[in-house]
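Hi support team,

I submitted a single chain yesterday and got back a structure, but I'm not sure I'm reading the token output correctly. Could someone confirm the output below corresponds to the sequence I sent? I've pasted both exactly as they appear in my results page.

Thanks,
R.
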Amino acid sequence: MQKSEKSINPWAWVPTLYFAQGIPYVIVMTVSVIMYKRFGVSNTDIALYTSWLYLPWVIKPFWSPVVDLFKTKRWWIVSMQLLIGAGFAGVALLIPMPFYFQATLAVFWLMAFSSATYDVAADGFYMLALDEGKQSFFVGIRSLFYRFAMIAGQGVLIVFAGALERVTGNIRLAWTITFFVLTGIFILLMMYHRFALPRPEADRQQGAVNNNQLLKEFGVTFLSFFRKKGIVLSLLFLLLYRLGEAMLVKLAQPFMLDPVTEGGLGLSTEQIGLAYGIVGVAALVLGGILGGFAISWKGLRFWMLPMALSITLPNLAYVYMALFQPESYYTVLICVAIEQFGYGFGFAAFLMYMIMVAEGEHKTAHYAFASGFMALGMMLPGMMAGWLQELVGYQWFFIIIVILTIPTVLVASFVKIDPAFGKKK
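Hi R., thanks for writing in. Yes, this is the structure output for that exact sequence:
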């Protein structure tokens, strides 16, 4: 007899469901950058090709109906975890190969599509398996465990890989072992969720009779998004608000890994893991929490410009590090914490703006479209970041990023926002 959703405590699956959601994203978008840098790949190639990995999240809304049309969301969750685990194994096996760069990128592409599909299925399953009261209760829990995944991926995993580099003296071997460990973790998660996830009655494959209607509704919903009042300015905001950050995030870790003689800081892999995975994530979360409180106090319109400055001006910390190349690791940690806190605080405005843009009859789908444009706004600037840095050097690269504060502030100044939006009532 199958277990019903009522017989399985959400604590048994919600935390692991969202921990598993965060791991592949952080591996594909952040850890891959560090790995390729340790293998000696140029900044131009790293930024260009890893930025393309955003594409599945850009176009995710367009194939989300497939998850509704075929099989159950539970099936998609378990299947995508198996594919992601196989992807980790594929990367591990390909790292020692002479053609590792092209081959591992292809596997990361497949993992990115699997991860984006997993996002659709997991979020849909969460809403189907829990009533509104439990959804509200566990929304903070799911967010917390997603953050834990960031700490595990950007922090613990990088420190582990760095320790293996030091112990084995073989960078390729260290990262091969690291990805085999990830493979084991994801296979265990898949096996656990195969039995631990509930089987809600609402999680059923759509009948063939409804397929054409569902696709027609998707088309209507898609067009209605672009008919929203002021949509052109809204799209400019979604694409430009994180312009500087989109370029910085691709070169921040390579800058810290590069030797001092090449304009970098000469840090070790372990030091990068501690800086970004522990200190950086803690500052990011704190900034995000305070940003949420601030908006609920005064509203989004009041905080929009200050938060636009918050997400951009702390990038001056990288200008300082590029100019003076501080030898003190604690100075580096402080700079990372300042930048990540500012990013967390300023990103709160971006998230609230997407919620505002999505308001209306099709808010869930419209939020997905907005998130697609958010990913596009990270993908396009990131693609040229490495080329620009190698052209002008780290000092001018970070100075240009600070200058890119101007487009962000301009779009933040002109967007129309209801003064009461976001205020706690």
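A quick pointer for reading it: The chain has two domains: 8-206, 225-425. Let us know if anything else looks off.

Best,
Support desk
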